[in-house]
């Protein structure tokens, strides 16, 4: 039987500012490695914070999360949600990435483009935020691939 698919989402805070170059290097390395380990997902970066969704075979996701937790480039990692998946949500992305500017208008109902407030959010708000950020990302990148 195929290994169970899981998804883990977290927020974290960068240790030193990530400029475009550092982000590009992180993404290039992550995409290569994720491809090798059958991992997919998305990464958002805004105002010094990261939001990431990682999905794939349970063992591969857990191994990467353990490495990411040890990575000194960020800290205050907070797991927002861990789910079992029937189907991947980011199967076309070895690590999708969207820069987020400062929004000029509030996002429409059911969308979310911020994650600075999730540090201490309760489980229900955290899991709703993961869903809404996923919707936002999918809408932003539709047709991009
Ligand atoms: C915000 C953030 C997201 C990361 N995402 C990934 C990722 O999706 N895939 C990956 O392989 N490494 C990712 N990394 C890097 C890992 O923490 C680690 O440096 C990398 O897996 C290299 O591991 P190695 O010691 O086996 O070479 C991320 C690091 C940070 C700070």
CATH architecture: 2-Layer Sandwich
The largest sheet is: 5 strands, mixed
Please bin the fraction of helical residues. 25-40%
Spatial sequence of strands, sheet with the most strands: 4-1-3-2-5
Overall outline: globular
The rounded Rg comes to 14 Å
Strand segment count? 5
Bound molecules: flavin mononucleotide
**Averaged pLDDT:** 88
Summarize the topology:
Elements: E1 5-14, H1 20-36, E2 40-46, E3 49-57, H2 58-70, E4 74-85, E5 96-99, H3 123-141
Parallel strand pairs: 2-5
Antiparallel strand pairs: 1-3, 1-4, 2-3
Bound molecules: flavin mononucleotide.
Flavin mononucleotide binds at residues 12, 26, 30, 33-34, 43, 50, 52, 64, 67-68, 71, 73-74, 95.
Report on this model:
- The protein is α+β, with helices and mostly antiparallel strands and 145 residues long.
- The chain has a single domain, classed as 2-Layer Sandwich (Alpha-Beta Plaits), CATH 3.30.70.
- The protein is 34% helix and 29% strand.
- It contains 3 helices and 5 strands, in the order βαββαββα.
- A 5-stranded mixed beta sheet has the order 4-1-3-2-5, sandwiched between helices.
- The longest helix has 19 residues.
- The radius of gyration is 14 Å and the shape is globular.
- The chain binds flavin mononucleotide.
- Flavin mononucleotide binds next to helix 1, strand 3 and helix 2.
């Amino acid at each position: 039987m195929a290994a169970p698919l899981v998804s883990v989402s977290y927020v974290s805070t960068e240790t030193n500012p990530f400029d475009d170059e550092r982000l590009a290097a992180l993404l290039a390395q992550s995409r290569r490695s994720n491809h090798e380990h059958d991992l997919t997902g998305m990464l958002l970066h805004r105002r010094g914070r990261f939001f990431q969704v990682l999905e794939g075979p349970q063992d591969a996701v857990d191994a990467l999360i353990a490495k990411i937790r040890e990575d000194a480039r960020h800290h205050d990692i907070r797991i927002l949600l861990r789910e079992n998946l029937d189907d991947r949500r980011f199967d076309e992305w070895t690590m999708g990435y969207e820069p987020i500017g400062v929004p000029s208008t509030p996002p429409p109902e059911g969308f979310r483009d911020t994650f600075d407030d999730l540090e201490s959010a309760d489980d229900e708000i955290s899991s709703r935020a993961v869903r809404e950020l996923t919707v936002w990302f999918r809408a932003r990148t539709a047709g991009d691939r």
